[in-house]
Specification:
The protein is mainly beta. 10% of the residues lie in helices and 42% in strands. The protein has 4 helices and 24 strands. Strands 3, 6, 7, 9, 12, 15, 17 and 18 form an 8-stranded antiparallel beta sheet that branches.
Length: 356
């Protein structure tokens, strides 16, 4: 039985254990829903590039830096350069563009050759002493609106991550009916070396304009059907994020093109440390639906701690609670846990320029 505190001089009243469990389940469900609904850290990359001293500090104290890279001789458009905010500095969108078709062309793959990101416009985002899960949207991957699809530029974008020096590939998807398809590209060792990735040839997924019957220049921020978008997710935490932009074929009369990508949304989290393990845990009994037992628990759990040396992300999950009605009856309720995704060891030298 559980007891509530007296209010205004009135005697405290006692609640049945079952009602206490239900109340706890409601609280847990509300907390889980709050985490689900909460807008966590999101970072427009143009703000990282424009940050004073080259280091961007998030509201939770973590730091990022970003670098623009012309890979393989592929250069950006002067009038709308890679890394700018668009359409204005309040936007969450960052530009990627090219002006030199010769070095920015991957090939379409229609000739039987594997398209290759030998030259591309790149933006590299690095974290200061932590890893993060992230999501972003690659936008406006379209084609030059020309009569013959073979005569116009066609865009492609991709992304790669790293964690502790190892390459991490994201998931990449498009919407049904999209004019963009996910296909395989090669990235040569030399191109990866230019952006600080392990220097060996890779096969990766890239999003490329794929229609040969329609050449559409999607209006920016007006693509509700997602015809020119690709959705990128890194469920496995990374410490480096690379954005890749190129064209699969060059134009007969227009060497310039630009696309955009959204803010990078990071998973909810906090600086954390281990806390004492709960002595017991409730687990379901196999073959007996709605029945549970308790068993000893030695697994540590984690909580936000500004003195902690780890970084945790909050994950929505479920847990089992005894209902209090006897016989091992139990119910599954929403829950939120803090899961360690990396050490948190920021460096004071992060982003600092070398002494002259």
């Amino acid at each position: 039985m559980a007891t509530t505190a007296g209010v205004g001089g009135k005697a405290a009243r006692t609640l049945p254990a079952r009602l206490t469990t239900v109340a706890a389940a409601v609280v847990l469900g509300t907390l889980a829903a709050a985490v689900e609904a909460k807008v966590c850290e999101f970072v427009p990359v143009h703000r990282v590039l424009a940050s004073a001293g080259g280091v961007y500090k998030m509201s939770d104290g973590r730091e990022l830096k970003a670098t623009k890279v012309d890979v393989g001789g592929c250069t950006t458009m002067a009038a709308l350069a890679t890394g700018l905010a668009y359409p204005n500095t309040d936007s969450n969108y960052t530009v990627v563009s090219h002006e030199n078709d010769q070095h920015c062309v991957t090939g379409t793959g229609r000739d039987g050759q594997l398209p290759t990101y030998k030259g591309f416009q790149g933006i590299l985002v690095e974290a200061n002493g932590f890893k993060f899960s992230a999501d972003l949207v690659l936008e406006d991957i379209d084609a030059q609106p020309v009569k013959d699809p073979a005569d116009g530029w066609r865009e492609t974008m991709s992304s790669l991550g790293m964690a502790d020096g190892a390459v991490v590939r994201p998931t990449m998807t498009t919407k049904q009916g999209s004019l963009v398809a996910v296909q395989q590209f090669r990235v040569p060792a030399g191109s990866l070396k230019e952006v600080g990735f392990p220097a060996k040839d890779l096969l990766i997924d890239g999003a490329a304009y794929s229609s040969w019957t329609e050449t559409k220049n999607c209006p920016f921020m007006d693509d509700p059907a997602g015809q020119c978008k690709a959705f990128v997710s890194y469920p496995e935490p990374i410490d480096r994020l690379l954005i890749i932009y190129a064209v699969t074929q060059k134009s007969a009369n227009d060497p310039n093109a630009a696309a955009f990508f959204s803010e990078v949304t990071l998973a909810c989290g906090c600086q954390c440390g281990a806390k004492a393990a709960t002595p017991t845990t409730t687990v379901p009994i196999d073959g007996q639906p709605g029945k549970c037992r308790t068993e000893s628990n030695a697994s540590p759990s984690y909580a936000c701690d500004f003195l902690g040396n780890q970084w945790c992300e909050r994950k929505r999950t479920t847990k089992w609670l005894m209902t209090g009605s006897g016989g091992g009856a139990c119910t599954q309720v929403p829950s939120v846990v803090s899961k360690v995704v990396s050490a948190y060891t920021p460096s004071r030298e992060f982003g600092r320029l070398p002494e002259p």
